[in-house]
Amino acid sequence: MRIIKVIIGVVGVVVLIAVGSYAWTAITKPQIETSIVIDADAGAVWDVLTDFDRYSEWNPFIIESRGTAAVGTQLTNTLLNGTSEMTFTPTITVADAGRELRWLGQFPVPGIIDGEHYFLIESLGSGQVRFVHGEHFRGALVPFAGGALDVEDGFAAMNEALKQRVEARAQ
Predict the structure, then answer these.
(1) String of DSSP letters for 28-45
(2) 46 contact partners, CB below 8 Å, separation of at least 6
(3) Do the beta carbons of residue 91 and residue 102 sit within 8 Å?
(4) What is the end-to-end Cα distance of the chain in Å, rounded?
(5) I need a labelling partner for 6 at 20 to 30 A (CA). Which of 50, 53, 78, 143 fits?
(6) Ranges of residues in the chain whose predicted pLDDT is under 50
């Protein structure tokens, strides 16, 4: 009987920690957001951004991607963060041509570490757009993930590479 009480107590503490951590991410909303101005129209940026099969030619962060830009479809992405590669399969939640692409990645189980990755294309007029690239994190292990979620340099590198590719095509 005593062992059952100990097991129930341990399980209760683990559940309490997990729920508390998940609630912390819902309240604090940890996120990364970067942006860059690109000298091109929104359609040109969208075309390069959603040509997933060509990511290996130009993208230093998402070094490989397969899939299509349609809501409900699943991509297979390989990230390079420093010297670590990680493959994951997010589901596209928004695909608004020339305006917004958004996907949700969950690994390995929903609610543990979830990342809502987004790309916004904002017209500035005069043939320029602001490209906003970010991610919101939530989940029970987010507070403990540390450097694994430190991808801001990768976002910035992807933004710069996208800018170079789009602007080179526009000339």
Answers:
(1) H--EEEEEEEESS-HHHH
(2) 97, 98, 99, 101, 121
(3) no
(4) 77
(5) 143
(6) 24-25
User: What's the alpha-carbon Rg for the chain, to the nearest Å?
Assistant: 19
Read off the pLDDT of residues 127-145 as tens digits, 9 standing for 90 and up.
999 999 999 888 887 767 6
Residue 15 is predicted with a pLDDT of 55
Cβ-count burial of 137 within 10 angstroms (0-12 exposed, 13-18 middle, 19+ buried)? buried
CATH of domain 2-170: 3.30.530.20
Q: Which DSSP string do the residues of 65-128 spell out, in sequence order?
A: EES-SSTT-B-EEEEEETTEEEEE--EEEEEETTTEEEEEEEESSTTTEEEEEEEEEEEEETTE
User: How large a percentage of the chain has pLDDT more than 70?
Assistant: 81
